[in-house]
């Protein structure tokens, strides 16, 4: 691994980051630590919100192996609409609350670990480990699967 990179493992439980490299953290601590680590491995001036971006990258990739395809597809639409509502000042709207319910339901399934490589202001997913998804009848992965190879995701 080049000197200007850093590898970190983020563990999620029900969609919430709970550990970095095996150390228990809160979501806020995860963002702060990832921000610090990513900031050490990037070009000066390109450091804004790197921790949050790394965490989002890890969460989205874990969703690809823990959510059923159609649910994941619809969730992307919900994510966009939720963001629009918040951006437009509709925090208290009934629709935003309804979307929160859907997001909470999907989050329950997002449990596992994501290995990230932090480099050049980016976070690249290099491996996934997940628990059994409720819609999935294949055995849960025990080892690290490559994030873009479905056949390796379920290997132990």
Question: Descriptors for this entry?
Answer:
single chain, 156 residues, alpha+beta, Argininosuccinate synthetase, chain A, domain 2, 2 domains, five-stranded antiparallel β-sheet, 5 strands, globular, disordered C terminus
Task: Explain what you see.
Residues 128-139, 146-156 have a biased composition (Basic and acidic residues). Pathway: Amino-acid biosynthesis; L-arginine biosynthesis; L-arginine from L-ornithine and carbamoyl phosphate: step 2/3. The chain has helices at 27-40, 50-66, 69-87, 94-107, 150-153, and strands at 5-13, 16-20, 23-24, 112-119, 122-130. It is α+β, with helices and mostly antiparallel strands and 156 residues long. It folds into two domains: 1-67 and 110-156, Argininosuccinate synthetase, chain A, domain 2; 69-108, no CATH class. The protein has a five-stranded antiparallel beta sheet, covered by helices on one side. Helix 1 (27-40) packs across helix 2 and helix 3 runs antiparallel to helix 4. Residues 137-142 and 150-156 have low confidence and may be disordered.
- Assign a percent range to the helix content: 40-55%
| Mean of residue pLDDT values | 83
Assign an overall shape: globular
Strand content: 15-25%
End-to-end separation in angstroms reads 25 Å
Instruction: Kindly give the count of domains.
Output: 2
Strand order of the largest sheet: 3-2-1-4-5
CATH architecture of the largest domain: Alpha-Beta Complex
Radius of gyration: 16 Å
Within CATH, the superfamily of the largest domain carries the name Argininosuccinate synthetase, chain A, domain 2
Please state the structural category: alpha+beta
CATH third-level topology of the largest domain:
Argininosuccinate synthetase, chain A, domain 2
């Amino acid at each position: 691994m080049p000197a200007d990179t850093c590898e970190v493992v983020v563990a999620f439980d029900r969609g919430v980051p709970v550990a970095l490299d095996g150390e228990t953290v809160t979501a806020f601590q995860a963002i702060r630590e990832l921000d610090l680590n990513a900031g050490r491995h990037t070009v000066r001036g390109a450091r804004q919100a790197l921790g949050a971006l790394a965490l989002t990258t890890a969460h989205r990739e874990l969703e690809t192996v823990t959510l059923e395809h159609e649910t994941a597809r619809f969730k992307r639409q919900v994510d966009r609409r939720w963001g629009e509502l918040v951006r437009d000042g509709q925090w208290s709207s009934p629709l935003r609350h309804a979307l929160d319910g859907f997001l909470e339901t999907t989050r329950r399934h997002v449990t596992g670990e994501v290995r990230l490589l932090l480099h050049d202001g980016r976070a690249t997913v290099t491996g996934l480990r997940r628990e059994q998804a409720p819609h999935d009848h294949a055995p849960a992965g025990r080892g690290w699967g490559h994030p873009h190879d479905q056949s390796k995701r379920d290997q132990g």
